[in-house]
Write a structure and sequence with these properties.
Layout (H helix, E strand, L loop, with lengths): L75 H6 L4 H12 L2 E4 L7 E7 L3 H11 L8 E7 L2 E9 L7 H7 E4 L2 E4 L11 H11 E4 L2 E4 L6 H15 L4 E5 L2 E6 L1 H11 L13
Antiparallel strand pairs: 1-2, 2-4, 3-4, 5-6, 7-8, 8-10, 9-10
Length: about 280
């Protein structure tokens, strides 16, 4: 570990979300502009306002709700300083493959949305704690009337940030004048066990001791591409199952047991039944 702090001689904005640049994340939450000079040897000034949490947070643990920068509108500099760790980037890609989406309007930066049924609140809250530093507010509840039954949900929406452009370009194309979600070959270089874990938690379902990944929103060609990526990255042999007019990916029990030790650490207890 190295010391973390700030030199008061040079003035610059440095927000809580900037911790995403470091593998060790932040020491507390900065809620006011401070300064820094040497990137490799940062020290907190004595007059820096921080949250009550001032202990080191390991890079593989969520920053938590307290990491949110409680400011409705950020400056351009503050927005640029907010970056993604490799781990958070993998989580976001897993979400986009399943229940998440990206929204982009005109010249504005993209934002990410994520929604779950209220019965999956444990998983949703885990995700929110991972992404809170990217958000400007608390999650939003909702309800929908379907077939005479009321369904309750909870959703989050991030800020519009420059750091999402890379993921946006990975998944979206303009087709017939509209943004369309797709799968590109470049996904191969982003796929890892964190991505797979969140993909399964979001869109996986138990089937004959194995896992079926719901890929209804993708074409047959895109599903084949996803299977090829899984074969290359994880040395498994998924197959295609057709259900009505949709094509889905099936991971057998044998392959599931092969990858289970590597995806298990990224599962919340609520969804462990999918891989047990």
């Amino acid at each position: 570990m190295y010391s973390v702090g700030l030199d008061v001689d040079t003035r610059a904005y440095f927000t809580a979300a900037t911790c995403a640049i470091s593998f060790n994340k932040s020491l507390g939450v900065i809620t006011s502009p401070t300064s820094f000079s040497k990137f490799n040897n940062l020290y907190y000034s004595t007059n820096t306002k921080t949250s009550s949490c001032n202990q080191l947070t390991l890079w593989d643990k969520p920053l938590g709700y307290s990491s949110m920068f409680f400011k409705p509108k950020l400056t351009s500099i503050e927005k640029i300083l907010i970056q993604l760790t490799p781990r958070v980037k993998s989580i976001l890609i897993g979400l986009i493959l399943s229940d998440g989406w990206l929204q982009k309007r005109g010249h504005w930066n993209p934002r990410i949305g994520f929604k779950q049924s209220i019965i999956n609140f444990p998983y949703f809250w885990h995700i929110y704690n991972e992404l809170a530093y990217l958000c400007s507010g608390l999650p939003m509840s909702g309800k929908t009337l379907m077939r005479g039954k009321m369904f309750f949900s909870i959703a989050l929406q991030t800020r519009q940030l420059d750091c999402f452009i890379e993921i946006f370009n990975l998944f979206y194309i303009i087709k017939d004048g509209q943004l369309t979600k797709t799968v590109k070959p470049e996904l191969l270089f982003y796929m890892d066990y964190i991505v797979l874990a969140h993909w399964i938690q979001g869109d996986g379902s138990k089937r004959n001791k194995g896992i079926t990944l719901c890929t209804d929103n993708f074409t047959l060609q895109e599903v084949v591409l996803l299977i090829n990526i899984l074969i290359i990255k994880f040395d498994i042999n998924p197959t295609i199952h057709k259900e009505r007019k949709n094509f889905r990916i099936y991971i057998s029990n044998k392959d599931l047991m092969k990858i289970r030790p590597y995806i298990y650490p990224y599962f919340v207890d609520h969804f462990l039944y999918k891989i047990n």
